[in-house]
Amino acid sequence: MFGPLIIKPGSARNNKTGSWRVGGKPKFLQKNCIGCKMCLAICPEACIEGGEKNTYTCDYSFCKGCGFCAAICPKKDVEMVKEE
User: Fold this and answer.
1) Best CA proximity match to 48, nearest among 64, 84, 14, 2
2) What is the span of the domain harbouring residue 49?
3) Which of 34, 46, 67, 84 gives a 20 to 30 Å CA spacing to 40?
4) Are 80 and 21 in contact (CB under 8 A)?
5) Is the whole model's pTM more than 0.70, yes or no?
6) What is d(CA 63, CA 47) in angstroms, rounded to the nearest whole number?
């Protein structure tokens, strides 16, 4: 019999999951951004940072490369690039 699994709150931030990325990663061009924050809202990993237009970046330690941010950007200011 197993006991309950208890994990310390906030411990997920310690698990850098960016190595799970398949294929590509987002590149924020920081040229045509209008600061709509749609990329922030759609990111399932909450790894996009920034607050004003043309300042958004991605924390690749946690990014899975899903491409949602690039797909939703109305100005196409985010593109998916091949992993180096």
Assistant:
1) 64
2) 17-77
3) 84
4) no
5) yes
6) 6
